[in-house]
Amino acid sequence: MINNLIFSTLQIFKILNKMKSVLLLLIMAVFFVSCKDDDEIQFPPELDQIIAKLDSSFDSLNVDMAANAAAIAADASDPANIRNRMLDLFEGSSFVLEFAFITPQGIMEIVEPEVYHYIEGSDISQQDHIVKGYQTKTPVLSETFDAVEGFNASVCFHPCVNSGAVVGGITSLFQAHTIIGRTVNPLVAGQTFEVWVMEKGGKVLFDQDGDEIGLNVLTDDLYQDFPELIEAAKLIDRGMSGETQYSFFQTGTNTTVTKKTYWKTFELYGTQWKIIWVKPI
Predict the structure, then answer these.
(1) What is the pTM of this model?
(2) What's the pLDDT score for residue 40?
């Protein structure tokens, strides 16, 4: 009887050791998958193409804004000259809706084109990008916000700084879905993959289902029945790039599908846009 007990005990130890080995292998597998380097991920080429085109568009805009901000900083006493500069900026841009000169007190003193003259005199001193730009004396790309013009928009803001003193600033107002859409739409036309974009924090900047633009993936009711999507959005929000998958509606339908997902991040002046490539699997 004692021999049988010893034999049974030894068998149990062998089984436990095997279980430990299997468990260790599983832990290592999960660890290595979660630590997968970007070099090991085969990112779709469209992600880099989109980011490169956004970089090019914003580089052109910001070079022009910086040059005009420097000129105004040297002499902010000529309103006619400033207005002409705002008009020149507008006529030279392909996606900006409005340029404005902002006083150091945060007042929209000069606005072009003419269709937006009615907002001259508006106080935007408490808008986050104005506060940040004047505090840091550096350019800012805002998050999307409800603009005084009456719609959701984004802004690039360049302070005008002379010998360390802020003498005003220039804003360029645009809708993110416009600049993103003109870049993304030609790439996805006729393809089986889709691209959507969210800013850090979960708000949708661009989607081929236009009704989703402006919604927040993390908080809006539309997404609450899709916990995989919410968890994927949190992962995307935290990381600069990576891969995952989630279940959600096929674009334009009420059919739920699983979507393989890759993302990379477009970043300008510290503001992040998550460029997300998805394909049903």
Answers:
(1) 0.84
(2) 83
